[in-house]
Amino acid sequence: MRFLHTADWQLGMTRHFLAGDAQPRYSAARRDAVAGLGALAAEVGAEFVVVAGDVFEHNQLDPKVIGQSLEAMRAIGIPVYLLPGNHDPLDASSVFTSTLFTRECPDNVIVLDRPGPHQVKPGVEIVAAPWRSKAPTTDLVAEVLEGLEDAGAVTRVLVAHGGVDVLDPDRDKPSLIRLAGLEEALTRGAIHYAALGDKHSLTQVGDSGRVWYSGSPEVTNFDDVESNPGHVLVVDIDETNAVSVTPRHVGHWRFVTLHRQVDTNRDIADLDMNLDQMPDKERTVVRLALTGSLTVTDRAALDACLDRYGRLFAHLRTWERHTDLAVIPADGEFTDLGVGGFAAAAVEELVATARGDDTDSATDAQAALALLLRLTDRRSA
């Protein structure tokens, strides 16, 4: 038996930093990743797809998002089993019980709306642990596995959502999945594979080779949070219940963090080269953590560099909490502007302020001097 394990589609997700056409393109990419599972399933011969929670970003969605999402699921063409997670729990406002969803849900899409075994076909079952609220007070997996007998001739796949205790720093959280109980169920043959969702990076849990987070098929956060997103798992379980898991990379977007020390124009040129060589700029978000000390001239060159690439990337910005740039006017830096009288006196005052101890005033003066240099360069060009 072969199937696809995926999770955390979070269809309808928006990223606050995406402006212009970047957000619609990002949303379309997330839907395309879903629809593209059909081609992957056909390529590898997968019989069905399990989605281990957080199908949708939340339960209050624009009808257009729901309709487009269902069309993407229809395009997969084989059975798709959806597990409600913490973003889209089966509460009173559940998207899965909405009139629009139930009316337009394709025949190949099945919601795992009750805990326990669901038959996929004779000899194959999914054991589901759906969320019914955003904050469960118990281990939903332990509840669904309690009393579950040896599967015998039936192959069973657990589909669940949430953090695992061995990976979570808050091990006293009541909703955490206890790995020991999960591995005990695997050992006694009550289940044969655990398809988990909630962690957006591809992650194997424990040493059994049978407990995995697939991660989100498209990146949702920067690389300091998501180290390995963009995957779907191809899972094989043979007649002896031996398990083989093969990750397939399907994502197209990247959220990248760059840490750079910039003290000279050479450093700025190196940053420019790094940004220039990054592929797929229209599908890449860049967050820059910059530290260093620059002259006003070099700071103006840096701003020009960032302005240029800000137009090319889906989004580019500095990471303020990790950016510390000092701007110190160099001696003689403003002597050849070709201005005199009142204008020259004003420039001298700005230079003095930029070197002063009043942080806010110095920052404003540095920005004014940088703008002055850029305007001067444009006039001379």
TrEMBL record:
GO molecular function: exonuclease activity
Record key words, sorted: Exonuclease, Hydrolase, Nuclease
InterPro entries: Calcineurin-like_PHP, DNA_Repair-Maintenance_Comp, Metallo-depent_PP-like, Mre11_N, UCP033093_metalloPase
UniProt entry tagged with the keyword Ribonucleoprotein: no
Pfam family, one: Metallophos
Domain named Calcineurin-like phosphoesterase: residues: 1-168
Gene3D superfamilies: 3.60.21.10
Protein family per UniProt: Belongs to the SbcD family.
Protein name: Nuclease SbcCD subunit D
The species this protein was found in: Mycobacterium florentinum
